[in-house]
Amino acid sequence: MGKRYGARTALWNVSITVAPGEAVALVGPSGAGKTTALLLAAGALAPDAGSVRVGGVDPARLGPGRERASRVGMLAQGLDLVPTLSALQNVLAGNLGRWSLARSLLSFLVPQGRPAAEYELARVGLAGRGGERTSRLSGGERQRVAIARLLVQQPALLLADEPVASLDPARGYDVLALLTGIARERGRALVASLHDVGAARARFDRLIGLRAGQALFDLPAEQVTDAQVAALYTLEEPDA
Amino acid sequence: MLSRAGALPSTLRARVEGRRALTLALTGMLALSLLAVPWREGLLHGGGLRAAGEIALAALRPELSWALAGTVVTAAWRTLAYALAGLSLALVLGVPLGVVASGVLARTRWARWCSVGGARGLLGVLRAVHELVWAWLLVAAVGLSPWAGVLALALPYAGILGRVLAELLQDADEAPLEALRRAGASEAQVLAHGRLPLIAADAVGYIFYRLECGIRSAAVLSFVGLGGLGFHIQTALADLDFARAWTFVWAMALLMVAVDAWSSAVRRGLAP
After folding, report:
1. Which residues of B touch A59 (CB under 8 A)?
2. Rounded to 5°, angle at Cα A72 from A66 and A76
């Protein structure tokens, strides 16, 4: 697939296939096209060339709403929760695509589908913390709440744009272990963009190296060499 | 380009000269107006200074008697009741209008333009008329009834609250809203689960500020003949009973402090 922003080509001739239960990391320098690739996969952008298929359907065609939400879910940097609501209410918001307006309003009084939300909160390591106000949680905990919301949403494809950029390395590593573990145990496809190549090699099944909108490699994590990683981040322009 | 660069200093110069001419004209007018003051008769009327001193002293010695206490409490309660009833009705009218005026629920550009334009226009008309003027109009229409007082407060306050709410809703942080849309939420659900909780603390703070304004306005409206603290201040002043007037003024101040404490307590619970 390919995408241009005006005269600038953000992504060209890049083909990515992900199987259910597989965790793929997009690595590369800033501006390589990682976020563009994720937005194309989410259906938030339409490709200028090629096509996007999630479970045989183009998510951009579906438009916003339940159909798309059941196919693709996206995790940002943990800054997109509603801080004034409780952690539980934020997790429950993963249901909104399936709920009628009346049911979503009722949920403020009597939380709907609470057992499932509590279960997912426990899965991300926040058992019994649902009553806390989201703004009082730490950055790592907020990211876990966002993951629990994604689990309640149950999309077939999980996308994560720099999911650990705002966390310290230890906490970031935990969140990556959680994400890849969930992808495998629930049979979801996971595509995450990452700066940290070391963490990507340790936790993900496959690495795709992007540079200037092109895929330099697409290999199982253990086959990626240091030389390939160095080529990704080297400062001089290739074939200038 | 060159001619425009040359034109700029000349327009600047014209502006500076214009300003100087205006200053001169205004100074001249001030000087002329001083000639019209009847200096020989004094600026204050005969016993003016003495009366001012008396009123100031009375502030320190308000009338504190058990006989008056009942009247003060009843009057304060009535003023508070007018303000609360007026503000509640203003919320019933203003919140839906504010949501429509924000245009966040409109699906198409055309629908958005119509809803924003129509609702903002209506809100503008409501708040263009001061509550005292609404009170005159309503007393003329429905007579001296509590309805006139409550509606006189509710109509302009609905206009103000609706407009402020519309702007808060439009300016809510986009990132959480976008995340809700990706989870499949409709715009109505985004409003309920995103925009409203995001702005709740600001909105409630503003509503309490408006309640303070409402108490002040309700006191003034009682001059129209609707009862309350303002009515008693007016009659006490008519009797030249300044100590008694100050009792009601201080009661008003206490009411404000109490509302402020209530507002702080509620907002502490909502703060992010």
Report:
1. none
2. 110
- Say whether pLDDT at B9 is over 70: no
- Alpha carbon separation from B119 to A94, A225, B89, B126 (Å, rounded): 32, 63, 17, 11
User: Is B58 within 8 Å of B245 (Cβ atoms)?
Assistant: yes
Pick among A84, A103, A108, A151 to test the B interface (most B CBs inside 10 A): A84
The separation between the first and the last C-alpha atoms of chain A, rounded to the nearest angstrom, is 24
Task: List, for residues B35-72, the tens digit of each pLDDT value.
Answer: 888 777 766 666 677 778 888 888 888 888 888 889 99
- What distance in Å separates the CA atoms of residue A181 and residue A203, rounded to the nearest whole number? 9
DSSP for B92-155 reads HHHHHHHHHHHTTT--SHHHHHHHHHHHHHHHHHHHHS-HHHHHHHHHHHH-SSHHHHHHHHHH
Q: Which of B176, B192, B197 sits opposite A80 (nearest CB)?
A: B176
* Whether A106 contacts chain B with CB within 8 A: no
H/E element, A156? none
Query: Could you give the CA distance from residue B100 to residue A199 in angstroms, rounded to a whole number?
Result: 48
pLDDT at position B213:
92
The two structure tokens encoding residue B107: 């699906």
Ranges of chain A with pLDDT below 50: 240
Residue entry with tokens 């409780």: A86
What is residue B46's predicted lDDT score, i.e. its pLDDT? 63
| Structure tokens, A84 | 């004034």
B198·A82 Cβ contact <8 A: yes
Beta bridge partners of B191: none
**H-helix segments, B143-195:** 146-170, 174-182, 187-190
Say what the pLDDT of residue B246 is. Answer: 92
CA separation for the pair A53, A41 (Å, rounded) = 8
